[in-house]
Amino acid sequence: MLLTQRQIKSFEQNGYLVLENFVSQEDCDKLRGRASKIVEDFDSSESVNIFTTNEQTRYSDHFFLESGNKIRCFFEEEAFDENGYLKQPKEFSINKIGHAMHDLDPVFDSFSRTEELGAVAKDVGFEDPRILQSMYIFKQPKIGGEVGFHQDATFLYTEPISVKGFWFALEDASLENGCMWAIPGGHRNDLKSRFFRNEKGDGTEMEIIDDSPWETSKLVPLEVRAGSMIVLHGLLPHMSHANRSERTRHAYTMHIIEGLADYPEWNWLQRPTEMPLRGF
Ligand code: FE2
After folding, report:
1. What's the CA-to-centroid distance between 83 and ligand 1, angstroms?
2. How far is the CA of 238 from the centre of ligand 1 (A)?
3. 80 φ, ψ to 5°?
4. Cα separation of 228 and 251, whole Å?
5. CB 244 within 8 Å of CB 77
6. CA of 165 to the centre of ligand 1 (A)
7. How far is the CA of 152 from the centre of ligand 1 (A)?
8. C-alpha 239 – ligand 1 centre gap (Å)
9. Ligand 1 centre from 151 Cα, in Å?
């Protein structure tokens, strides 16, 4: 057991839990260094095509849908000018890296699988936690896009719903550079939509279950210092504004599901059988 009863209770009440000073400065630097190496080594020509051809949707769906067991870099929407050129250098144009860094990259793998994190997973209710996906989020200066209100279970669905997010601030996240916002207690609402692969398996669709607006009167910003970890319930509505500041807002995030839960074939993220999900 790593969390206190009070912390567990707070998580159950609010749907999120902030753990300050969870990650050392050294580990934050290590992950940042590794992410910048991945971006440096990334051949952007394939993705530049995605943003400059008129078959954009087909290419980008394909690039995204096949990233569940790969390490790929995704550009910010505003990264390109009207002629298809990057507005900022490559290292300031990537929105995120995803989605199997925790399996394929040794630095992220060892960060992601620790006894401590396994204990947090058990404390927040998992019996057989499995790491489903990982992302490195850059939230770039000036062009880092907004992420609208959503529940993570919309994108990572299991039956019963089990997904939880482990989010690590590798830099200070403030109002200025687009910190996360959440609705305390909002995880007690049902799932409002489901994102799935279409029947042909070559695109995605959103099924709206409940189109009522989010009840945002209790919305709070989760401003945290570098090294903080935030645990997010999969039904908790959360969002972040665009980053219009001069500085980045780097974060690493993993999503964990219950190994005993049913994982539907229509989820966008599918892993080949030879790459089964692992725990901590
Ligand atoms: Fe999210």
Report:
1. 31
2. 6
3. -105, 145
4. 10
5. no
6. 8
7. 5
8. 7
9. 6
Distance 261 CA to ligand 1 centre (A): 20
CA 61 to ligand 1 centroid distance, Å: 19
**What tokens appear for 71 in the block?**
């390490």
Q: Which H helix or E strand runs over 233?
A: strand 229-233
Mean pLDDT of 151-179: 97
Quickly count: other Cβ atoms within 10 Å of residue 123's Cβ: 18
Spacing, Cα 262 to ligand 1 middle (Å): 21
Which among 148, 77, 128, 111 is positioned nearest to 276, based on CA atoms?
A: 128
Of 46, 151, 133, nearest to 96 by C-alpha is 133
List, in order of start, the domains of the chain with CATH numbers: 5-258 (2.60.120.620)
Cα 94 to Cα 88: distance, rounded to the nearest angstrom: 10
pTM (whole model) above 0.85: yes
- Alpha carbon 226 to its chain centroid, in Å, reads 17
- Angle at which helix 56-65 crosses helix 45-52, to 10 degrees, equals 140
pLDDT, one tens digit per residue, over 87-122 is 888 899 999 999 999 999 999 999 999 999 999 999
Token pair for residue 165?
A: 């997010």
